Automatic annotation (TrEMBL):
The lineage of its organism: Bacteria, Bacillati, Bacillota, Bacilli, Bacillales. SMART domains: HTH_XRE (SM00530). The keyword DNA-binding applies. Residues 8-62 form the HTH cro/C1-type domain. InterPro entries: Cro/C1-type_HTH (IPR001387), Cupin_2 (IPR013096), Lambda_DNA-bd_dom_sf (IPR010982), RmlC-like_jellyroll (IPR014710), RmlC_Cupin_sf (IPR011051), TransReg_Diox_bact_type (IPR050807). It holds the Pfam family HTH_3. This is Transcriptional regulator, MerR family. Keywords: DNA-binding. The keyword DNA-binding applies. Signal peptide: none annotated.
């Protein structure tokens, strides 16, 4: 994931776009894009999605190895934990790698007392199965306090955020569309 900034720059140059043109296409500032391409700034999922759309690739492009391979099995010992945009929650990608994949299965670990400060909305849908612990989902103006064994499934266009109200880690199975990583 450390090479996302290199892939963004290479793709922009391949498409013969200037930073200014990419800025106009994405709505992201010229200085921010310059920092991203130099690896001097972190990138939110929302910003990465804008860049992917402007550059004509899926978001998974930025997370794939350069070699083209298809795998259908994800072995526990081969998975890597990662964080996004400096957040405290941790993710483990559970998906295979093959073209035209539609689902994004992830294991999500929410640290104790985590509370997202901002709600998000985007295209797609999301399904969560609480494996361990508790989580409060804020969906539009409603709040759902879920415990191990509970599920929630909603359109991603609704404003949503989550929090772990406990002093223990919460572990969640997430399956969403579109592909993010």
């Amino acid at each position: 994931m450390e090479d996302i900034h290199k892939k963004i720059k290479a793709l922009r140059l391949e498409k013969k776009l200037t930073l200014k043109e990419l800025s106009e296409e994405t709505g992201l500032s010229l200085s921010f894009l310059s920092q991203i391409e130099r690896g001097a700034s972190s990138l939110s999922i929302t910003s990465l999605k804008k860049l992917a759309e402007a550059l004509g690739v899926s978001m998974i492009f930025f997370f794939e190895d350069d070699k083209e391979s298809q795998t259908y099995v994800s072995k526990a010992g081969d998975r890597k934990v990662f964080k996004v945009n400096g957040g405290d929650q941790k993710y483990i990608r559970l998906a295979g790698t093959f073209s035209d994949r539609k689902l994004e299965p992830l294991m999500v670990m929410l640290p104790p007392n985590l509370k997202e400060e901002h709600s998000y909305s985007h295209s797609g849908e999301e399904f969560y199965y609480i494996l361990q612990g508790e989580v409060i989902f804020h969906i539009n103006k409603d709040h759902y306090h879920l415990k191990a064994g509970d599920t929630v499934h909603f359109p991603s266009e609704l404003l949503h955020a989550w929090e772990n109200p406990t002093s223990e880690e919460t572990i969640i199975l997430s399956v969403s569309t579109p592909i993010i990583f």
